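Section 5: illustrative case.
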C-alpha cells in the first residue's frame, strides 16, 4: 500500500533551503519515493489552515517513508532542512489502484483514519470486487463506481 508524506514548510533561511533542495531528491528516489506536489500554488478551501510551502511525497509503504526520514542518506539534508525551515510533517496511508482500474471510475467518501481502518472499510464495501478504487494524495478512501454512473 502506498504512503504519503505531507509537509507544510515555512522557510526561514532561503539560501540554506536551496542547498537542501539539491540533496533531498536523491534520498527520496533511493527509498522508492517520488514528488506528488512541491511548493506549488495552494489555496485554503475550508477551515483556517494557511498553507506555506506544501510538499507531498509518495512512497511504496509506511516503512519506506519512515526509513527514508531516519536514513543515513538523508541525515545531512534533514539537518539542513531543520536549520533552514520549520515544518509540520505527517505520513498517511493510501489505497492503491489495482490492475485494470481507472481513477475516472471513482468518487471519494469520508476518510477513515489509518491504513487498517481504510482496508477494513474497503473490504466490507458493498461494491468491493465489482469495480475499482484509488487513493487520493491525502489518504482519502475512494470507493469505486461502475463506469457510466455519475455521483
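Designed sequence:
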Amino acid at each position: 500500500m502506498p504512503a504519503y508524506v505531507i509537509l507544510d514548510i515555512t522557510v526561514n533561511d532561503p539560501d540554506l533551503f536551496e542547498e537542501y533542495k539539491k540533496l533531498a531528491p536523491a534520498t527520496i528516489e533511493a527509498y522508492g519515493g517520488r514528488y506528488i506536489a512541491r511548493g506549488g500554488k495552494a489555496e485554503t478551501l475550508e477551515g483556517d489552515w494557511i498553507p506555506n510551502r506544501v510538499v507531498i511525497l509518495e512512497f511504496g509503504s509506511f516503512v519506506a517513508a519512515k526509513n527514508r526520514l531516519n536514513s543515513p542518506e538523508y541525515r545531512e539534508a534533514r539537518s539542513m532542512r531543520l536549520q533552514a525551515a520549520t515544518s509540520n510533517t505527517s505520513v498517511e496511508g493510501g489505497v492503491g489502484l489495482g490492475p485494470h482500474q481507472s481513477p475516472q471510475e471513482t468518487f471519494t467518501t469520508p476518510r477513515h483514519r489509518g491504513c487498517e481502518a481504510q482496508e477494513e472499510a474497503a473490504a466490507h464495501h458493498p461494491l468491493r470486487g465489482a469495480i475499482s478504487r484509488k487513493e487520493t494524495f491525502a489518504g482519502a478512501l475512494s470507493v469505486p463506481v461502475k463506469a457510466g454512473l455519475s455521483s
